[in-house]
């Protein structure tokens, strides 16, 4: 019998098998390939830590910034990482509200990705401050420096609140989702330290239906809150640019354009992470080819929105008749940073067109390079928006070129190191698939099969 | 608190459908079910057990209103009364510019209030020990518990009803508190 709808779980429906599979990476000795990945990412993290230490000790002058180009690599990285996080919230919150069953085996790792990406993102404004130990000055707290408060009219402050709220709500949502799984792990663990840790983390969870009923309400409420939150976060990030009067930044299309781009790049990263982990952790029967197919479709949709935004920006630059606006876009496509612009267009407009083909959407080996190119493209999008708008604006006497220094490149490498190290540790110490949700899927299917009804 | 123990009749099942069938049988025979213990949320049990709609949305709403009012009050006090700084000629009371932070703090307060209320209401705190009614309810065992107050736990009718409906095991359990 061919199922009417795809089944999101292949193989055995026995509940104990599911927890065995999900708990296995936490128990056994990891695969040599895991050690290889951790070694590589720790080296990258070390490079980043050295660069950041040098920068903090010496000053922002170690970066290639100048009076004209005051934002470049650091803010590009910030916007890039904060965007990556958006796919996680889309999967865990928006798809929950839409009752999409395929989110169940990927939501945990996507949420983890969100948290690590937000942490990586927060690093960049922090080190750009020059004196990161004064970070708390961005918070409105009572102080002895006279009546002195933060500027609530600044989008940069809005960002502080948006990103902190996003990080806190994502962490809470992530932890809450893991509580039932911690209880399972607690009951599986032999007496010892691990059992105590799981016992504390599981908060005395015993699977009571009264608790489950409230739990589902709480999760639904959090999803309802996280949905507008995630849209607001990248909208506010885009306002860092859009509320300025700089040609190339001052555009009303920015909030939806940035949100679409964020989800697009985030799905690129989810694809990359899951294609690798499903293989390394032997989770192919949970993260199936059909999951990859669905994620590719969302990537294609959001990629098309991004392409539409590019076209709309170019059209407006021409149709508005505004000389400055027109020049910025001509300079992007034909100026000294044209190579970055065309990299962006190739990766974000041309490459995702391959996803129209079903065979590509279901092929991990084809999706892996595509997902990497999407991330490259989206990084360059932010670079193009930031650097090409700044380096040649209204006053030709201020025109300069920007070149990143080795320290800046090292910091970018370090942020990837931080992200992948966190993710690799996560798949080793926490259940990377929501066991209780997958069990619910399996149990419901077993129940309906027992009644002879197809799901 | 005096040491009192409560008796429960606990029946275990191997699947959600047998659990649901047993719960329906018990309810139809007039027995009150104390609670069910399942490895994942089984839908349709709430009506059989008598779990009412959660009032968590109200907590969420209250938290949201608190966050919204608090954020607006904070921004008005700081930017309008205490330190009316002229930024780009904008008026001190630039309400539109206060919207993003108000929104963020509304969501933050509503979310944290919801989770805090949920955890406290269900007594889920790190020091709680899981007083499990039956082994394996977090793994693959589905259990129903009847309280002595609600059912005559030693009445043969309940025992036979449970065993008929496919229970793998029926036991008496004392929970001390």
Fold and architecture overview:
The complex is a heterodimer of chains A (455) and B (177). By secondary structure, chain A is mainly α. Chain A has helices at residues 15-27, 32-58, 73-97, 107-128, 155-188, 193-201, 209-242, 254-280, 289-319, 323-334, 338-350, 358-361, 364-391, 406-429, 435-450. Chain A has one domain. In chain A, helix 4 (107-128) packs antiparallel against helix 5 (155-188) and helix 7 packs across helix 8 (254-280). The mean pLDDT of chain A is 89. By secondary structure, chain B is an alpha+beta fold. Chain B has two domains: 5-53 and 131-176, Alpha-Beta Plaits; 56-121, no CATH class. Chain B has helices at 16-28, 45-49, 56-82, 95-121, 156-164, and strands spanning 5-13, 35-37, 142-147, 169-176. The radius of gyration of chain B is 25 Å and the shape is rod-shaped. At the A-B interface, helix 1, helix 5, helix 6, helix 7 and helix 15 of A face strand 2, helix 2, helix 3 and helix 4 of B.
List keywords for this structure.
heterodimer, A: mainly alpha, 15 helices, B: 177 residues, alpha+beta, Alpha-Beta Plaits, 2 domains, four-stranded antiparallel β-sheet, 4 strands, rod-shaped
């Amino acid at each position: 019998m061919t199922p009417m709808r795809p089944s999101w779980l292949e193989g055995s429906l026995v509940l104990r098998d599911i927890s065995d599979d999900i708990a296995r990476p936490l128990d056994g000795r990891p695969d040599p390939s895991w050690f290889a990945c951790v070694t590589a990412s720790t080296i990258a993290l070390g490079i980043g830590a050295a660069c950041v230490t040098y920068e903090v000790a010496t000053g922002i002058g170690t970066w290639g910034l100048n009076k004209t180009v005051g934002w470049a690599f650091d803010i590009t990285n910030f916007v890039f990482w904060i965007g990556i996080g958006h796919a996680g919230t889309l999967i865990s919150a928006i798809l929950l509200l839409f009752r999409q069953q395929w989110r169940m085996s990927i939501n945990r790792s996507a949420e983890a990705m969100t948290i690590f990406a937000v942490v990586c993102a927060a690093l960049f404004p922090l080190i750009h401050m020059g004196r990161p130990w004064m970070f708390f000055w961005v918070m409105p707290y009572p102080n002895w420096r006279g009546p002195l408060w933060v500027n609530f009219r600044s989008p940069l402050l809005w960002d502080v609140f948006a990103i902190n709220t996003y990080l806190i709500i994502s962490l809470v949502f992530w932890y809450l989702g893991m509580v039932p799984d911690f209880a399972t792990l607690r009951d599986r663990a032999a007496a010892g330290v691990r059992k105590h840790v799981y016992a504390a983390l599981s908060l005395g969870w015993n699977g009571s239906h009264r608790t489950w009923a409230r739990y589902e309400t709480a999760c639904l409420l959090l999803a309802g809150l996280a949905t507008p939150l995630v849209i607001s976060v990248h909208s506010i990030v885009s306002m860092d640019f859009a509320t300025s009067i700089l040609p190339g930044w001052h555009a009303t299309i920015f909030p939806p354009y940035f949100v679409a781009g964020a989800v697009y790049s985030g799905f690129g990263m989810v694809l990359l992470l899951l294609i690798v982990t499903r293989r390394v952790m032997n989770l192919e029967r949970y993260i199936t080819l059909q999951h990859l197919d669905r994620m590719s479709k969302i990537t294609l949709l959001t990629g098309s929105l991004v392409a539409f935004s590019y076209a709309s920006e170019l059209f407006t630059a021409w149709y508005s008749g505004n000389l400055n606006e027109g020049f910025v876009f001509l300079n992007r496509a034909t100026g000294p940073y044209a190579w970055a612009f065309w990299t962006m267009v190739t990766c974000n407009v041309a490459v995702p067109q391959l996803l129209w083909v079903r065979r590509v959407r279901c092929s991990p080996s084809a999706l892996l390079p595509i997902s990497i190119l999407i991330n490259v493209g989206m990084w360059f999008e932010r670079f193009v928006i930031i650097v090409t708008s700044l380096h040649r604006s209204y006053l030709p006497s201020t025109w300069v070129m920007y070149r990143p220094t080795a320290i800046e490149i090292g910091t970018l490498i370090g942020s990837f190191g931080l992200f992948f190290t966190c993710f690799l540790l996560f798949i080793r110490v926490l259940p990377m698939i929501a066991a209780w949700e997958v069990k619910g899927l399996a149990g419901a299917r077993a129940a309906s099969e027992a009644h002879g009804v197809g799901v | 608190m005096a040491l009192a123990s409560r008796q429960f009749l606990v029946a275990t099942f191997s699947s959600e459908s047998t659990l649901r069938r047993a719960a329906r049988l018990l309810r139809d025979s007039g027995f009150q079910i104390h609670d069910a213990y399942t490895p994942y949320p089984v839908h349709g049990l709430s009506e059989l057990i008598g779990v009412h709609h959660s009032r968590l949305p109200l907590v969420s709403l209250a938290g949201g209103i608190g966050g919204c009012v608090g954020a607006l009050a904070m921004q008005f006090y700081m930017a309008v009364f205490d330190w009316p700084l002229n930024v780009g000629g904008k008026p001190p009371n630039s309400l539109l510019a206060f919207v993003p932070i108000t929104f963020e703090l509304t969501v933050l307060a509503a979310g944290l209030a919801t989770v805090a209320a949920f955890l406290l209401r269900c007594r889920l705190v790190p020091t709680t020990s899981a007083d499990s009614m039956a082994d394996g309810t977090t793994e693959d065992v589905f259990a129903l518990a009847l309280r002595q107050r609600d059912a005559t736990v030693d009445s043969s009718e309940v025992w036979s009803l449970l065993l008929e409906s496919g229970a793998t095991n029926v036991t008496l359990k004392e929970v001390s508190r």
